[in-house]
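Standup notes
- DV: blocked on the single-chain target, sequence here:
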Amino acid sequence: MNLPADRLRGSLLSLLLVSATPAFAQDGWKAADFKLGNGMEVVVIPDHRAPIVTHMVWYKAGSADEPPGKSGIAHFFEHLMFKATANHPAGEFDSAVAAIGGSDNAFTSYDYTCFHETVPPQALEQMMGFEADRMRNLVLTDETVATERDVIMEERRARVDNDPEALLDEEVDATLWQNQPYRIPVIGWMQEIAALNRNDAKAFYDRYYAPNNAVLVVAGDVTPETVKALAEKTFGKIPRGQDLPPRIRPVEPEQNARRTVTLSDPRVSVPSFSTQWVVPSYHTAKPREAEALNLLAEILGGGTRSRLYQELIVNKGIASSVGAQFQGRMLDDTNFLVYATPNGDTKLPELEAAVAAEIARISRDGVTDEELEAAKNRFVRSMIFARDKQESMATIYGTTLTTGGTLQDVEEWPDRIRKVSAEEVKAVAARYLRQNRSVTGYLLPEQQAGN
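- DV (later): unblocked, structure below
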């Protein structure tokens, strides 16, 4: 029923999470926002092209908010939210969505948990009623908790323990982040998942699942006036929860050593590597730094026009895949990633040196005005396609608002991208992508162990 805890990583959605377009504010696309009396923030994004509405409830609670020793409780609780409430038996919510031809799901990340439904507009009040009900009326029993805990443990076995790449990702994260809770996997460590109990679930629920710690985003064939009336009728009846302290987490120490993590596994047939750095997010960066990092990732390894692709795949033929990513929408600092897989008889050290050379070239010589302008155009134009999916639009606003951003940040993002200079792109490459502060992960076939 629920997608993998970290499904937002490494996909096209990584681009959408940091992007918006002026078109949102034109032709009836401008988002409206307001707060209910109990503190719940509401965002409405009208889209009248089709009789469909996407309804999302975002909680400002993810794996990085978990108490020490309770890793996985945020994702675990995402599963528990689909169980019985005082007013509805388990499965009734899902059945109601299916009966009207809709869809529903949920996902957990480091900084938030989101529950969403896509349904006809006339079913919006019903969806709000279900979500409002489980926000405070969930029934948690020892049996329910134990059963779902077994499901989570099996999910971890299938998606992590049985996947060498996922295992390496966990080890790299635990090395990259020396002090920050992003070092702990969203799904949790197995031994801590096994120890989670009803009291842990109840404490997490009571602390974080309240209207004043949630953001409601509704996109689709609705008006702000209709959504406000329905929200007040449903969510507005829920009492305000406790006022939570600011989400201040441990800060990373200065990193001055290059680190490597190597995993050899008989299930691996082709070697690969990735290198990561800790860099500022949109919430922690200085003005235009995050935008410059976005453009750097696009120019360096954002697609077939990128430097890495053209040089290592097209010109030299030494890589079969290569790329770069910057996941900017995080509450705290985030990571910048480059990755590559060799082609043919190319050895991993040769490929790694070639990737490092391209990074060094940008740090030393910068980027051209032409490739910078092309990258800006690709970024801004991509949002025209983003608005074609209600879920993408709602996700842009939801991730922004749950990681310290505002509606103004979404609306002004294209202008800030346009203002980034070539010198600013060069500066972030030189400042952050230094080998002496990187972590490189090597995924190798078993016979290459020790090479």
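- Follow-up: Residues 368 and 422 are 7 Å apart (CA to CA).
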